[in-house]
Amino acid sequence: MRTSNCKYILFTLWLAVSLSGCLGVKHLKENEKLLFRQTVQAPKNISEEDLRNLYIQRPNRKILGLPVTPLVSIYYFGERRYDQEKYIRRKAAVEKKYDDKIAGTSSERKINNYQFKKLKKIDKLNGFIENGNIWMQWGEPVSVYDSAKAALTQERYKDYLFGKGYFKNKVTHKISNRGKLVTVTYKVEPGQAYFIDSIFHDVADTALLHIVNDNVRTSFIVKNSRYDQDNFAKERERLDLLIKDYGYYDFSRQYIDFDIDTTFRTPERKVAVIISIKDPARRGYHKKFTIDEVNFTTDVGTNVPNRERTTRSYRDIHYQYYKNNYNLKILSQRVFLQPGEVYSRTKTLRTQQQLGNVEAFKFININYDTTGGKFVANIFASPLSRYEWTNEAGVSVTQGFPGPFYNISFKKRNVFKGMETFDLNGRFGFEGVASATSSMNVYKSTEAGVNAAMTFPQFIWPFKERLRYKFAQYNPKTKFVAGYTYTDRPEYRRTVISFNGTYTWQSANRKRTYSLTPLNLGVIDTSKLSPTFRELLRNQAALGNNSLINSFRPSFVNSIIFGITWNLNNYGNKERDSWYIRTQLESGGTIWNVISPKFISDFELEYFKYLRFSLDVRKTDPLNKNTILAYRLNSGFAYSYSDNHSLPYEKFFFAGGSNSIRAWRPRRLGPGSAKPPESPNPVADGLYDYSIEKPSEILLEASIELRQKLFGFVNGAVFIDAGNVWSFRALNVVNGDGQIVQDKSSQFSIDRFYKEIGVGTGFGLRFDFTFLILRFDVGMKVYDPARPEGDRFVLDKVRFWKPYAKENGDGTYFGYREPVIYNVGIGFPF
């Protein structure tokens, strides 16, 4: 036998033994076997994901699909150290401690405080007594194969298929053993589906029958569709809500019933459905309720001794209060219930939602009183405190570097009795931004600012009163913000005085949010440029590339911004697919197309005319309760059409960093395939110098990330990022002969941009502390478009340590290595 074959066999045996240990086989008792894997064999028209969710028993969780189950080791590590009696004794000691404290005081406040602390600690100790110590709760015991649970899973599959219209299905399961490892394979044979052939309605109440027939287009039960039990539950819910919107306040879904006739034309697998709506047994008919009165108590929880609430009517609504704190003209815009109208569940919920959206009340409760032969709507609202101070200190991470900050905020509600809100916010912090001309000097970047905002719960516009009531259901708001921002970075000091006014509103289903900023003004002043940065600007200007230097001159920026945000299925939830889409269009300097900016020039201020568009699309796809696949596509362009061909620096696009392409340092990727300058210290930093920020006008990037819960509050992730930035115009550069020539490598070109997509990969950890998520990512370059063609795939050159390049002795370098990039962030990258 060859030595190489012996080595291969020995390695295979060693790997098998090692994996068995990693899988927790050693924790099995005699005659027990480990449930290693479960698979489902089903036709394409059957959702395997739905079937997997029906497993009674599950294998131990593996890390990113590898045959390694560290949670088992964690569990038994904790079990060896677990002493249940210790927690029982500790629980008794806690109960005695707080019982003694409660007995030793007569203060009701202290008693309530002691009771709260006692219950909180007892609940925690009960968790340890019932579920083990923290290691056992983070881990999981070894999954011992149970044949009874496999049989029960098989029965679940049969029930599932029956509910999906496959009445004559067949499900079997097969067991495969490899030592102590068991694999269960379920084979699903659904057979032919049954389809709905006829739909009949059995509704004695003709008024209800008209409602059902008039809204049949929205029915979940459709002729010629496959029978699906889930649709019957959805239809019962739809009919219940529909009928309640037509005034039937006490209608209940218990009156709705379905009869299924599977004998109807059986040879053709057809189903007849009879939808029945029964009448109440006692009354004998369904009553339609019309609102007689609407009462609104605005200060529930307030108590004024020896005084009764004042009642005042406005738009047929009776308002009750101790003190007249609200403009009833404004408040009534958010109430959609009116005397003389039939009861509507939708209008009731809309009233509750819109009153909650104005941030004036702690809670809103609406109930209906049917006593005395009347149908009265009662709205109860508890006001929020008029004044509020908040302080916040923490660490922010914006471009991969942490920095402390302190926020202080003051809020005054109901400023003019129209539920307006005034906010005053101050902030000071060391922003975690990389230097624009160096990879060092991070902590010298300081930011301070103050903002004052006034928010109105309506559009500040001369609309007619009728239109204001019509728009109120879309949660309209007008917000004016004035601010001052001071930024001190290693390269420059920058101040911005800004003012903007924004309208926001939502769609009726609250899945879309619109924003329109017709007035966005800013005066920007940049001073104290560092010699290095000043030289960079001058060099670019000398080459005829004036865009950058114009961005750092004293400037006046004005623009109009319109944005739409879609949030579908509550983006980020762990139960079902969800989407987040944000698009924004900005027109800068639009007014200078109509009037002359001469008076701006008189103040020696730079002005800009530009168009800017951005699109951010995100999606999360839960694969199971512990694993999520997340996607992102982020793109945009900004085009200047003013004489200076410049953009404000804040309006440029950048790529690279903890929320972008993580294999590149913040703002250092691109543009295009432009080659960065050679590094002054290749041995330590690599062959190329990525110290200069790369502002550009076109952005295209995409990411995919697999997230999996590891244990406790620790989650892991692997990711692939791809993207780059480009410019619209070719930049001027100095060639080897000292001549100024155009460099088109940074310019966007439709026939080569796809070759200039930088690709990075990596892995990371997310620490979910509930109140925040701390993220640590390691990024590695895969494809670097800045390198010469033929040398752009660099994953094999990535190194976590050792010199990045070696000196040849003649001033050149060989054996270069790509440094990994470490990113720290707060929250998910997307």
TrEMBL record:
Residues 406-793 form the Bacterial surface antigen (D15) domain. It is found in: Membrane. InterPro entries: Bac_surfAg_D15, BamA/TamA_POTRA, D15-like. Keywords: Cell outer membrane, Membrane, Signal, Transmembrane. It comes from the Bacteria. Residues 143-191 form the POTRA domain. Its main location: membrane. Gene3D superfamilies: membrane protein fhac: a member of the omp85/tpsb transporter family. This is BamA/TamA family outer membrane protein. It comes from Chryseolinea lacunae. The lineage of its organism: Bacteria, Pseudomonadati, Bacteroidota, Cytophagia, Cytophagales.
